[in-house]
Amino acid sequence: MASGQLSRAEALACSGCRHACHVMLYADTKSQLFGKIPIRHIILMQMRFDGLLGFPGGLVNPAEETLEAGLSRELSEELGVALPMSVEDHVVSCHAPASSPSSSRLITHFYVKKMEEEERERERLIVLGMVRVPLYTMKGGGGLASFLSHSFIGNARSQLVDSLLRLNLVAPEELHKALVHSVKTHMHTTEDLKAAIALTDARRKRF
User: Which part of the chain is the Nudix hydrolase domain (predicted)?
Assistant: First the structure.
């Protein structure tokens, strides 16, 4: 078991720990972007209140409900639809990255649930702040590489990459190229942010 990972039993036995459940909802599709670029799969994430990308879900209290019941409740609140979750949808439990005081003693439980495209459309899972992960690459490197260069909450990016590989939704070579390109994109973004900081500093000095 990888560092930081816990079995389901170990996670639930943790005294004084808080629990958060999140799920990657995805569906296969024959749709094409602009009628020529195969989309292949639809993966949904959401832009959080803090401007970071993550998967739908939230805090769950195992003392009052099962992890799956709590996740279904969170999905109902966030998406407006009731999606039953099962133990079979569970992928991994692990300690949250110690990136902030709020993550102290927080255990995250990650789920993956495949849906039919018709079911996804019927339940309108592309609205309410959800975003579709672009699994294609456009000229100039746009698409998946640009998406991966965004800021993600906690370990959401690694969860996404691991799921793409484990489910064979993206070829390892293609994903590797996208990640390398996203690093370059991130470097350019850093330079843009530095320029923006310099601009604001210059403006502040006027006052």
Answer: 16-157
SS3 at position 56: coil
Q: What is the pLDDT of residues 36-70, one digit of tens each?
A: 888 889 888 887 766 678 899 999 999 999 999 99
3-class DSSP state of 75: helix
**H helix or E strand, kind and range, residue 200:** helix 172-204
Tens digits of residue pLDDT in 97-113: 765 555 668 999 999 99
Could you identify the residue written with the tokens 């692990």?
94
CA-to-CA distance for 86 and 70, rounded, in angstroms?
Answer: 11
Q: Where are the domains of the chain?
A: 5-205
Tell me if 166 sits within 8 A of 157, measured CB to CB.
Answer: no
Instruction: Name the β-bridge partners of 143.
Output: 137
What's the Rg (C-alpha) of the chain?
19
With 0.85 as the threshold, say if the pTM is over it: no
Q: Which CATH superfamily is domain 5-205 in?
A: Nucleoside Triphosphate Pyrophosphohydrolase (3.90.79.10)
CA distance 90 to 105: 20
